[in-house]
Amino acid sequence: MADAKDAVEFLRQSIDGEATPRAEAMEDLRFRYGDQWPAQIQQSRMLEARPALTINETDAFIRKIENSQRQQRPRMNPHPVGSKASIQVAKVLKGLCRHIEVNSDADNAYDLAFAFAITMGFGYFRMRTDYVREDSFDQDIYIDQVENPFSVYFDPNSTLPDGSDSERCLVTDLVPRYTFKKQFPGASEEQFTTTSTGDTIDWVKKDTIRVAEYFSVEKKRAKLVKLSDGTVTFFDAKLMTPEALAGAGLVVVGERDSYKRVVHWQKQTQTEILEERDLPGRWIPVIPVYGVRMYIDNKRRCFGLVRFAKDPQTMLNFWQTSMTEVVALAPKAKWLLAEGQDEGHENEFARANVSALPYLRYKPTMVDGQLAPPPSRIQPEPIPAASMQNAMMMSENLKRVLGVFDPQTKTDGNRSGKAIHAERMQSEESNFNYYDNLTRSLKHAARIILDWVPTIYDTQRVMRIIGEDGKPSLVTLNERKMDTEAGVEKILNDVTVAEYDVVMDVGPGYNTKRQEAVGVFTEMLGTPLGEKIAQVADDLIVRQLDVPGAEEIADRLAAANPLAQIDDKSEIPPKVQMMVKSLQAQVQQLTQQLNQAGGLLKSRADVAMIREEGQTVRARLTSEGEKAEREITRAQKVHDTEVYALTAQNVAEINGLVRILTSKTEHGHKMQQMLAQFEHEVSQLDAEQQAKASATEEVQR
After folding, report:
1. Does the model's pTM come out above 0.70?
2. Of 360-374, 385-399, 559-573, which range is least confident?
């Protein structure tokens, strides 16, 4: 465990070893923000009352790089690692990382660290945990900005670009003495009375006291064990007794000697530790963002864009000042006139350079017997062409050194938007190393978050997570539910187990991608592929539109599309959910077809019954006809009347029966056709009966 002397010694070593790099970085920072004249030249010009202009193009170019980074922020994207990790929990962690960034205003921390990195070579942001409210036991993770990177003394032995291998770090602050006494009323009085000698000069000033946060990593020897259920953890003699393992049905199947990284934090003065505790995780939560970092002459050097922009920017200031000075010191235009030509008009010529007179009058004068020419103005010396050319050359040199070009300022002919975009991409690529360094630092910050999550979010609690489109939603972490079928307790969204890694998502942000997607979909809608996409994903296309009411229209389209009813929070993968929805739609369609088939079969049964009744009627009519033939000798006319009446009555009954049946079937039009066919058959039967009666009557005659 570290003590106060460790931090004092570390500060002394850092000050001795980093004096020159820090001085150069401070010069770069001052130069960017306007301190661009050498001190001796500026003082001499001030004594002579000569101008010393600063045309600060360096800051404008660097701000362009900063704004490009703000438009394409790197995004944290956790991925599952190992068999116990799940894609659904990885999505929850992704939304949790966005919640932490939004809740902390982390963009400010990232932007400030990136600005320092491209200006002087290094910047920092840090992470911490704190309670969400004064009256709560729940904690959250926060990402804070480091306003003064010179207050951070980072591990000089760290070599990785994200600082993940650092084992010591000191963050200091000079606190006024009266403020220190209010914040730490129980602190020792020793630091107030210590004389300023040796290391004390760096810690105690006349009116301030240095308060430092000292982070240190201690590697403790520990035994790593592997249990029979596949769990790998450090051995704990109190929790992993033989009885406890046997009660849980576990057995140690493997073990080896290892070490455990413990991060210790303490707040201290030179002589006293004010607060201290162990932090969760394995890494120091102070993350550097570097510019260019390399060894030169066995010494580590850090620098940004300003370091090599000083010379062209200084020359630009010099030539611009020189041209301004030539114009300022040049005499005003004078009038050349012969003696006596201003006689009577002396006041007009005296005020010619300070007033806009519409005309000047002069008196014609004879010189040596000849009329003198009219008065003429003597023009001052123009700005030297060499000065203007040198100023333009220095401006171009500054762009080349910084690797930043502005294609919109070029007017050499008509140039397409693609050409301008290509030149912009060329400018961004020339400084992409700075952007990539920020991405590496954010990736390390995401690893620290994932390392802290099992400790900070170890209980069941409802948390806000934020999706890629910026929409928030609520999810319950470590939710315990009883599985009634299996009879065991199940934990949903368990963030305390398994292992997750980070893959950074870079490039344009969500809004930019959405606008590009709208353009692509619009071009595809007229193609066969676009029509297929519109049939299965019409709600997704409408949701990309940045117009009022797009979300409401998309929701209505999604309600009618089974494939759109996917639960992102479900443990079932979206692909499987889509397959289930598709199968459900197919089952529903087949059910409708079966219902239709059943109705059709019922209709066919009704038709068969009608045909059977028709055959019965036909048989009965035939029998009656035969009877009529046998009895025709007795009462032919009466027989015909009875047959006609009976036939008409039967037809009416059958028609009524058919109408009742056809009104109850889904295929009434088919029944109508069959009814018409039946009536036609009855008419034919009637005609046959009449023909037979006529033949019989003819025979009798």
Report:
1. yes
2. 559-573
Quote the tokens at residue 310.
């000083």
H/E stretch holding 152 reads strand 152-154
For residue 424 the two structure tokens come to 């912009």
CA 276, CA 272: separation in Å to the nearest integer? 11
Average pLDDT over residues 33-49: 90
* Torsion angles phi and psi, residue 134, rounded to 5: -65, -25
Report residue 257 as tokens: 């000697």
> Quick one: tokens of 609?
């019954």
Q: What is the DSSP letter of 241?
A: -
Q: Please state, in angstroms and rounded to a whole number, the distance separating the CA atoms of residues 22 and 367.
A: 75
Return d(Cα 680, Cα 691) in angstroms, integer.
16
E-strand spans in 467-601?
A: 472-477, 479-483, 488-492, 499-502
Q: What share of the chain is helix, strand, coil (3-state, %, to 5)?
A: 50, 20, 30
Q: What's the pLDDT band for 660 if we cut at 50, 70, 90?
A: low
Residues facing residue 336 across a β-bridge: 376
Query: Among the listed ranges 80-89, 261-270, 610-619, which one has the minimum average pLDDT value?
Result: 610-619
Phi first, then psi, for residue 285 (nearest 5°) are: -85, 40
| Segment among 25-39, 344-358, 512-526 with least mean pLDDT | 512-526
Residue with structure tokens 């602050």? 173
d(CA 187, CA 273): 9
User: 280 and 265 in contact (C-beta within 8 Å)?
Assistant: no
Cα→Cα distances 480→477, 486, 490, 494, Å: 9, 14, 6, 9
* Nearest-angstrom CA–CA distance, 513 and 517: 6
Q: What is the widest separation between alpha-carbon atoms in the chain?
A: 172
